[in-house]
Design a protein that fits this description.
- The chain is α/β, with parallel strands linked by helices.
- It has a single domain, classed as Rossmann fold.
- Helix content is 37%, strand content 15%.
- Strand 2 (39-46), helix 2 and strand 3 form a beta-alpha-beta unit.
- The longest helix has 26 residues, at 119-144.
- The radius of gyration is 18 Å and the shape is globular.
- The N and C termini lie far apart (53 Å).
- The structure holds NADP nicotinamide-adenine-dinucleotide phosphate.
- Residues 20, 22-26, 47-48, 51, 71-74, 99-102, 128, 155, 157, 205, 207-208, 210-213 line the site of NADP nicotinamide-adenine-dinucleotide phosphate.
């Protein structure tokens, strides 16, 4: 039978939300999803237009598929406003990938020793890396609770694994990722009751060539430094393989489970 004469098979139409989409892994996800024909609508967040040039160009080129919205994840009222904006356009999300994270930012630098600990800087790590994600979990329930499978993934980091910590240092970043893991594991249990088709996952992307890792790449062998394209393709494979029993687990880029 000639495929040209057969009726077109309608692919399911799915919606996605990518947070922290201005650069690095988040921008990589937006580009990747624009290549997926079953993803009809992509919502993407940025903090400032100045930092979002490439993302906003993608929106101009894809006005029917890509909707970009301002979000600072440390402001809960902005998270609520984001959800309202999405609800004007769609009743449900199938994919949420939270790529927001901070390791260094101005004078905020990962600590090498206890003597460098500063309460305000520690708070900043928790606000961006941990609390923002669990507030998303709080506000996303109505959009993720529906009859289809939905995935809510947050990019964590292997250095947030307590069991894997051999080197020390990076107190604030490590602890904020460990807190993130606990927040999302706990949210997964509650979602299991309130939104049983939602799978919550924590992902370690592997060392990826982005602004975040740039100052720390010196000792990383080239084969262990992934491009954003490679990282996103690997994480997309992991996400597509998730089943309901995986909700609340912490996965590495190759699909192996990581210790807490
Ligand atoms: N790259 C790696 O090797 C690596 C390894 C392990 C884990 N990770 C994790 O992967 C995730 C993505 O990192 P990346 O490497 O892609 O970093 P990146 O290139 O620095 O991107 C971080 C993203 O987060 C956004 N962001 C930061 N603070 C925010 C805030 N307060 N509110 C809203 N958005 C904010 C940034 O927006 P602006 O452009 O406005 O700053 C940017 O879009 C992070 O959670 C990171 O911890 C990365």
């Amino acid at each position: 039978m000639s495929l040209a004469n057969s009726p077109a098979i309608a692919l399911p139409s799915e919606s996605a939300l990518i947070l922290g989409a201005t650069q690095g892994i988040g921008l990589g996800f937006v580009k990747h999803l624009l290549q997926q024909p079953n993803i009809s609508r992509i919502f993407a967040t940025y903090r400032t237009a100045e930092a979002a040039g490439e993302l906003l160009e993608l929106q101009t080129a894809n006005p029917d598929r890509l909707i970009c919205t301002v979000l600072d994840i440390t402001d809960e009222s902005k998270i609520a406003a984001l959800i309202q904006t999405i609800q004007i356009n769609t009743q449900c999300l199938h994919w949420v990938v939270n790529c927001v994270g901070v390791l260094h930012e101005g004078t905020l630098q990962p600590e090498k020793s206890l003597s460098q600990l500063d309460p305000e800087r520690l708070m900043r790590y928790f606000q961006v890396n941990s609390i923002g994600a669990v507030l998303l979990a709080k506000h996303l329930v109505p959009l993720l609770r529906h009859g289809d499978r939905s995935i809510f993934a947050t990019i964590s980091a292997k250095v947030g694994s307590i069991g894997d910590n051999q080197l020390g240092g990076w107190y604030g970043y490590r602890a904020s990722k460990a807190a993130l893991n606990m927040f999302m594991k706990t949210a997964a249990i509650e979602y299991g009751r309130k939104s049983p088709n939602t799978i919550i996952a924590l992902l370690h992307p592997g060392t990826t060539n982005t602004r975040l890792s740039q100052p720390f790449q010196k000792n990383v062998p080239p084969e262990k430094l992934f491009s954003t394209e490679r990282t996103v393709a690997q994480l997309w494979t992991v996400l597509n393989g998730l089943e309901p029993t995986h909700s609340g687990q912490f996965f590495s880029w190759d699909g192996t489970e990581l210790p807490w």
